């Protein structure tokens, strides 16, 4: 059976960066990979409030997003579930012969609460992956742009292939959710249809309001909207799918049932069928 000292040795030897904090965000431990990534020692940081150990750059506060990191930690503790911040700008203080200097860094983090037997958090673990090598930051626009370039040799130890894959998954999932949210909030009705049978792949809220909140995704358009069949839309959808040319119309009449078992109502819509090409 493994002893406590064995688990401690395993934790310190982990190739992944971990910072362990008490619920009051006092640092109680760090893996070797984490200490190397921030160029610190356990003696430097253990026992300190995390934002005292890693303060903001007084000369450039925007380079250290304490607000976002604190919010993510508190969400994890409050929910009792992991909380992910796919991308956060957070400069770290580095000791140099000339004094403390702040090294500009970008991170992808997951904060995971560790729960006691009664279900309350007894600690929270931060897993920050340094993604600085994947971004270029424009000082004028204050925008960081993702660049899928390999890490430089001086960061290779702290940014191995597995960590790169994990960080990119976090970032791309975050981007996907952001785009899905924008799609769903679009004021115009939008649906994505796939294949020659025109099967609903995605539908936004405005589209659901147009046709009534019925089951759409995964169904062919004429199966999901039987009352629309025969009104002339089939010909235009098939043509767009076959030719790859868009089709646009204004104030086209459509008879649609907006409520379950309700009357079929006539509406007039502006409609665009825009082909999506899988390149």
UniProtKB/TrEMBL annotation:
Gene3D superfamilies referenced in this protein's UniProt entry, alphabetically: PAS domain
All copies of domain PAS, residue ranges: 5-71, 177-242
Highest taxon listed in the record's lineage: Bacteria
Protein name: PAS domain-containing protein
Source lineage: Bacteria, Pseudomonadati, Pseudomonadota, Betaproteobacteria, Burkholderiales
């Amino acid at each position: 059976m493994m002893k406590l000292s064995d688990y401690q040795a395993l934790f310190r030897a982990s190739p992944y960066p971990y910072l362990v904090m008490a619920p009051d965000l006092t640092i109680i431990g760090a893996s070797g990979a984490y200490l190397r990534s921030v160029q610190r020692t356990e003696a430097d940081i253990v026992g300190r409030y995390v934002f005292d150990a890693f303060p903001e750059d007084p000369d450039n506060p925007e380079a250290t997003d304490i607000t976002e990191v604190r919010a993510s930690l508190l969400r994890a503790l409050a929910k009792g579930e992991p909380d992910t911040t796919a991308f956060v700008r957070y400069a770290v203080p580095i000791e140099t012969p000339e004094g403390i200097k702040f090294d500009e860094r970008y991170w992808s983090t997951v904060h995971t609460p560790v729960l006691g037997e009664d279900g309350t958090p007894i600690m929270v673990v931060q897993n920050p992956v340094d993604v600085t090598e994947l971004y270029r930051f424009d000082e004028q626009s204050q925008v960081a742009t993702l660049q899928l370039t390999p890490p430089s040799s001086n960061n290779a130890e702290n940014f191995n292939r597995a960590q790169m894959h994990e960080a990119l998954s976090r970032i791309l999932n975050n981007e996907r959710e952001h785009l899905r949210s924008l799609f769903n909030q679009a004021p115009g009705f939008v649906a994505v249809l796939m294949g020659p049978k025109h099967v609903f792949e995605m539908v936004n809220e405005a589209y659901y309001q147009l046709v009534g909140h019925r089951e759409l995704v995964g169904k062919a358009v004429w199966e999901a909207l039987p009352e629309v069949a025969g009104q002339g839309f089939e010909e235009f959808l098939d043509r767009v799918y076959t030719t790859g040319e868009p089709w646009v119309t204004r104030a086209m009449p459509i008879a649609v049932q907006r409520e379950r078992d309700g009357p079929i109502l006539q509406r007039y819509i502006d409609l665009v069928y825009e082909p999506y090409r899988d390149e």
